Amino acid sequence: MKKILLVDDEQDIVETLKFVLESEGYTCYCAYNGEDGLKLAKEIIPDLMVLDIMMPKINGFKISRLLKYDAKYKNIPIIMLTARSQESDKQIGEETGADVYITKPFDLDEVLATVSRLLKEKEEN
Amino acid sequence: MAKILMVSDNNDKIKHYDEMLTGFSHDFQFASDNQMFSDIVDINMPQIIILDSDSKSIDLSQLYRKINSVKENIINITILKEDSIPPELLNISDAFLMEPVSDNVLISTINVNLRRKDALIRLATSNQNLSKSLYQLDVLYNTGSQFAATLDKEKLINIMLEGLDKALGFSVACVLTFKSDNEPLLIINSINQISDRLLEALKLRAVLNYKSLFENKEMPFELDINDLKTIKYAKNPIDDYDFSVLRYDNMLAQINLSDNFFGFVEIYRENEFTNEDTQCFHTIAQQVSMPLKNAAYIQEIQAKNKELYRLEHLKSEFVSIVSHELRTPITPLKTSLEIMLSGRAGILTPNMQKFLTIGKNNVETFQKIINDLLDMSKIEAGKMDYKFTSINMEKAIEFVKTLQNNVADEKGLKLTTKFDENFATVFADEQRIHQVLNNLLSNAIKFTKEGGNIEISTKIVDAQDIVCPECFENEIKKLNGKYVQVCVKDEGIGIEQENLAKIFDQFKQIESSLSREVGGTGLGLPIVRKILDAHNGAIWAESKLGVGSNFYFVLPVLCEKSNFWIMHKQLIQQAKVNKTKFVTLTISAKGNCIEKLMKEDNLFNGTYLNNSLLDKNENLTSLTMVIPDADRHCVDFLKRKIDAVILNDKARYGKCDIMYSYTTYPKEKD
User: How many domains does chain B have?
Assistant: First the structure.
């Protein structure tokens, strides 16, 4: 079973995503701030992460950068979620190593399709 | 009565004329040699010289020279012995009399010449007065035109004082004014420095003057001598004026802004003022009141503008924050509805399905409205970022058409496209162009009745061939060169002619309640227009009530015909073929765009910056970069990036003309 880590300070979003992903057969771990998210990521080493950008303490960019520079975790695909849709944010997201960038409010189908694509790509590598 | 000097060596004659002229109460003197003549002329200048040319002991030629030197101021009457005038005398003598001279003739000659001289003096004086008046008039005129040129209170007062100084030449001028916060201020301009004693005296006098102006009347401002601040300007700071100034002649004039008191000006001068001076003084003091009034208005307007700007900014900020906050709860709301609709949370009855669908559709509408509000606030704050790439217009249209196909099918509408035979490539932000097309197309779908037709067409046009309704002509004027014109044609209800020009204007829409008829926030079309503006494009519409509307927009094309791109591509090609060693790229721009680009966009990093030269002169800045290894596509890359940043910059900072040019250097021979 694939492990997916969800990190977002908005519990409702985590809740709905968790429900959908679990109904698709994934195992979900949740964190509601950046600090816990980073700790949990290192503990469980998930197969994929969904990260919000704007979070208290450690934001999504920072988590992404910290993980991508570490050989142990750099292969974890990261999906960035944010309410902001400015180009500059997208660019920063790409530079910090996030694999996909999805703007809130998102389409569930889009999220599911992206998750399965990234996992498939990871397996092939 | 006149001072008369007789020059003669004949004592009988002297005696005779002395008696005769003294009898007519003239002041008579005589000179019997050159020395005596010179002395008298130098010490006690006569009005009339009577010259006896029959004086043998006098050196006449020396005498003539002396007379010649003072001839402007005297009347010269020459008595001749015979009827021939010495040529030297022709120019210096006013009258010639032949001997024997009758007393009557001499007296009448003296009188005539005295009267003539008197008339001349009067004429000269009035000429002098006239030129003085002319000068004052000229100063008045100049001051008047200077007044018109500024709306700054302090400058206006300075101009007034300068004018008064030029026209009247005052020793001291005191101006009393009240600042906006009723703070009294006494400005003292003087030739010499004002002593401390005099300053106190002038302050006291200003207060007394002020109180006397409003005797038995209500004073517009409170004035206490302890609150009176002073500013002193002295042309000559070494010498001091003391109380003596208070004995000088002085004039005072009140300065009014229409019916309101503004202040007064008082000037002091050692010489007495004439009537003309008084008039001139009052005219200048009056002249200043009109521009001062305007200056007061301008200050008020500026303060209001500042406040408006602040409020506008606050509004944008508010809209931005509120939209963000509104968008946050939409995500779980929408996701929850989607989960239920997908059947993951359990089996749905047809009614549950129906109402959840209604809910989801409305959440999506809500989301669109918030996106519009966010877009508008970003545009207004100048924070809208565009990612420019070269995109194909036909492809963009096909993409948007696919998105809307389902909705159109549901309504039984026929969506067709008709493209120009040449493909149109534009330099644009793909997402934003999709937004433009999507907006126009969904409007067309919304308003076209079931079973109707909607057509999207493209056409490559020259700017001068574009035709549009009169109310949009200003939009078209700014265009120049080749454009792709996209037309979305619907069979909708149409738009009334008087509303046509308003549909792209957010404020007008709200004003005319047009948005209620159209639905939504009414921000869709204004946003579309702003996006097209940022792309150097334009938008307009044609409409017939009950028949339908045509929405047109144009974007500059980057077709193969564009010289610039051909030049660019050729250069790159050349660089590759010749294995060019390096290329220099020069970018020139007005203002400080380039510095801004360097700082903000991190464009010229690493190697390029090391090899670059920034050249600044006045308004044009140019940056020359030497790009090594030009054969490795790097120019192409850099060029694209610059294009994007520059267009981006244009959108953000308005006008900034940027040009660039290349020079290639062939590889050095081994």
Answer: 5
